[in-house]
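In practice, a research group might receive sequence data for several interacting partners and want a quick structural hypothesis before committing to experiments. The following worked case mirrors that situation: the sequences arrive first, and a predicted assembly follows.
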Amino acid sequence: MTIIETIDAFHRGAFHLVQPKGRGHRAGMDAMMLASLVDAEGPVRVADLGAGAGAAGLAVAARVPQAMVTLYERAEEMAEYARKSLNLTENAHLKGRVNVIVADVTLKGDARRAAGLDDDAFDHVIMNPPFNDHQDRRTPDALKAEAHAMTQGLFEDWVRTAGAILKPGGQLSLIARPQSMAEIIAACGRRFGGLELTPIYPRAGESAVRLLATAIKGSRARLNLRPGLVMHDGEAHAFTPFVDDLNNGRAVLKRTGR
Amino acid sequence: MTIIETIDAFHRGAFHLVQPKGRGHRAGMDAMMLASLVDAEGPVRVADLGAGAGAAGLAVAARVPQAMVTLYERAEEMAEYARKSLNLTENAHLKGRVNVIVADVTLKGDARRAAGLDDDAFDHVIMNPPFNDHQDRRTPDALKAEAHAMTQGLFEDWVRTAGAILKPGGQLSLIARPQSMAEIIAACGRRFGGLELTPIYPRAGESAVRLLATAIKGSRARLNLRPGLVMHDGEAHAFTPFVDDLNNGRAVLKRTGR
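A structural hypothesis for the assembly, expressed as tokens:
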């Protein structure tokens, strides 16, 4: 069987991504919006949990010139695409700052540390946890199914790992469905505070299709439900200007507080 | 000690409310927004749980000409204000359709039914559960403290009662703080579905201060995070037109689906 790869430009050509065509989760808007939550400068350490082909982590590396990014991905096949991306000449400016580790981010304790997920090591953790929804279209392809298979307790497992590998005061960022908000809040529990939730609406008057969330390890600040982002004005296909800037690495979605 | 009462006009004079001045929770915007969630016609039966002086329930009765409204309030003193409101000549059009029952809405089973909270009796249940927050100003007054005292599990208790007294397919409506969203979702559990959440923002760019929620007893529909309502444009003191209409009983906040 021949797997067709594509090379897609993101951030208006600031970096490129090798992805399988028709297999696995294809990176796009979600990964770019997730990356826009990392409001950082200097040599920060960033972990992308369940990185897939690495779109979100590479987007952070492309926008934050000194960021050191580790992509953690369980599926060797997807990790290999991330390595291919790093070997593209177009991505030469990222190569020394991004590494790829094949690891299951749901591991605990010593097994987690042995897999390369070190305690208190990162300034930022980003994640786009897999989800599934019975009301969605079927995903017959196995890799795609894995990328979308949200099982009970998955947020708990992923957020626990984020809590372990972040430095105190470090920031967790994630993108999820609005339907997962209670699970996200529960998973943050006492590990994280200052949870800030930002709905993403396709158009004015429509219900949210995604939820952006950030939280601070060890914070006691209370939850903040922030103004939503609207992707499109009226019937337009183009993104609204601020969303377009977020999608292209020209803006970050700043938190209201630390 | 003399308790000063006020008589306040709501819905631009469509009904009036007797309230204690400086004691207890004073009804206002929250109660009117809650009432705006009841999208009903004809002789529907509506229960207002923890009705206080009855502002929200009276607002529904004022807007829906055939609605039959029962106000449930634990504090006899507050229930007495509701009765005083019903005896105002200005509220003569409401009197035969609104009754007041002194009852603890957290009662269960036979005790709940004995207190006048009948099973499967209502088309709509509305509630503005008390809340407290350590980051808030203190509320030294005892009645006010009771009205704001959100204790662990209170949403669970209130929503359980709503689930019991609603007819199948009946609608629960509530107003709460955004910080309570996880508790609301958990309390709805399997009793309710089709949860629709609408944030209320003071102004564009600010975080939400309230969350409106509706849910349908027995529904299996998934959660919907709806567009937020913005109360004020820019620096204006006046409400934005749609919020002003909701506040004045001239509009309802319709659900996207049943």
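Before designing any experiment, note the following. Residues 133-139 of chain B have pLDDT under 50 and may be disordered. The first helix of chain B runs from residue 29 to 35.
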